[in-house]
Design brief:
The structure holds two protein chains of two kinds.
Chain A (H helix, E strand, L loop, with lengths): L1 E4 L2 E4 L6 H7 L9 E4 L2 E3 L14 E5 L9
Parallel strand pairs in A: 1-5
Antiparallel strand pairs in A: 1-2, 3-4, 3-5
Chain B lengths: L4 H6 L1 H4 L5 H9 L2 E5 L5 H11 L3 E5 L24 H12 L4 E5 L8 H7 L4 E4 L4 H13 L4 E7 L2 E7 L7 H5 L11 H4 L3 H20 L8 E6 L4 E6 L29
Parallel strand pairs in B: 1-2, 1-4, 2-3, 4-5
Antiparallel strand pairs in B: 5-6, 6-7, 7-8
Helix pairs in contact in B: 4-5, 4-10
The chains are: A mainly beta, B alpha/beta.
Chain lengths: 70, 268
């Protein structure tokens, strides 16, 4: 099945959970990433129970600092 | 308000735009924008807003100019090393455009002062040019509680992202990111590095959003996160979901008092 992760098509051999997708996509700080699945926020507590379906659109949103220390 | 001949000439490229005109230029000259942090993001934002003729620009920064800042903080210059950044910023702004009234706040923002700073000139729009998450959440919460629009942004390495909050028109920063990450879990620019132009590109997007908001034109980055990857040279806008139970901007907000999150020792 084919899903979209941050706009890029990703082919998955079998149905996996969001938690597994975070591993497959090598997200380095999965505990601090915000996840949107088909334009809805998914809470971190639901990553394991949320199964990815064909055609799903997933966005991993990352913390970004930068600028000037204040 | 009447323009002098010099102002007509200075702002002629703005005024000739149908979306700006004389009316829009007067609006800009009567507008007040607060820039928190005069670093990589705040520096270009301040210069473009000054050039555009935003009449009052507030600068918040307790820091002094350091040589390592000059790789990206283009409002400062070599002769200003060691000077307070807000003083250096004011001089650069007034060199560029003496029309601008620059208000300086040589302090770090905290729950104790941010409300007073925003209320000081009753700023129309706020730009978050800070580098750390306690300040970013503080600015978000203060703006939501005071019903003020603001532009959030972050940059690191070759990446940047920015979104705009306007009261009642989409999610706030906290809707997306909930709480600051614990100290030392997300790298800073000092640790990870940042290409100097990243602040230029993203800070200039922030200035663009401020000008659009002040003029009431175009589509703002409300409900959208603009994500920029300089290595791929790719801009994406991610449509953001709304969070009805957001603790600060949701239907039943519970956050009424500003929070000073733990600040890591950092001297970026």
């Amino acid at each position: 099945m084919i899903v979209k992760v941050n706009g890029n098509e990703v082919v998955l051999e079998k149905a996996i959970s969001l938690k597994e997708l975070l591993v497959v996509q090598q997200v380095r700080t999965p505990e601090y990433v915000t996840v949107q699945l088909n334009n809805e926020f998914i809470s971190a507590g639901s990553f394991e129970d949320t199964l990815i379906k064909d055609g799903d659109e997933i966005e991993f949103l990352y913390f970004m600092g930068g600028g000037q220390a204040l | 308000m009447k323009f002098t001949n010099e102002q007509m000439e200075r702002y002629s490229r703005n005024i000739i735009l149908n979306e700006v005109g004389v009316k829009g230029q007067i609006k800009l000259l009567e507008s007040k924008v607060l820039i928190v942090g005069t670093g990589g993001l705040g520096a270009p934002a301040a210069l473009y807003l000054a050039a555009a003729g935003v009449g009052t620009i507030g600068l918040v920064d307790a820091d002094a100019v350091d040589l390592s800042n000059l790789q990206r903080q283009i409002i400062h210059s070599t002769t200003k090393v060691g000077k307070p950044k807000v003083a250096s910023g004011r001089e650069a702004i007034n060199d560029l455009n003496p029309d601008v009234n620059v208000v300086t706040y040589q302090e770090w923002v905290s729950s104790a002062n941010i409300t007073d700073i925003i209320k000081d000139e009753d700023y129309d729009f706020i730009i978050d040019g800070t580098d750390n998450f306690p300040a970013k959440f503080l600015i978000n919460d203060a703006c939501v509680l005071l019903h003020k629009p603001f532009s959030h942004a972050g940059i690191i390495k070759f990446f940047g992202q920015t979104m705009t909050y306007v009261p009642g028109q989409g999610p706030c920063y906290r809707c997306v990111f909930l709480n600051p990450p614990p100290p030392n879990t997300v790298p800073t620019c000092k640790e990870a590095g940042v290409l100097g132009v990243m602040g230029g590109i993203i800070g200039t997007v922030q200035a663009t959003e401020a000008v659009k908001y002040l003029l009431g034109i175009g589509e703002l980055l409300t409900g959208r996160l603009l994500v920029f990857d300089a290595l791929e040279m790719e801009f994406r806008t991610v449509t953001l979901a709304s969070r009805k139970n957001c603790v600060v901007c949701g239907e039943n907000p519970t956050l009424k008092d500003l929070i000073d999150y733990e600040q890591r020792a950092c001297e970026l």
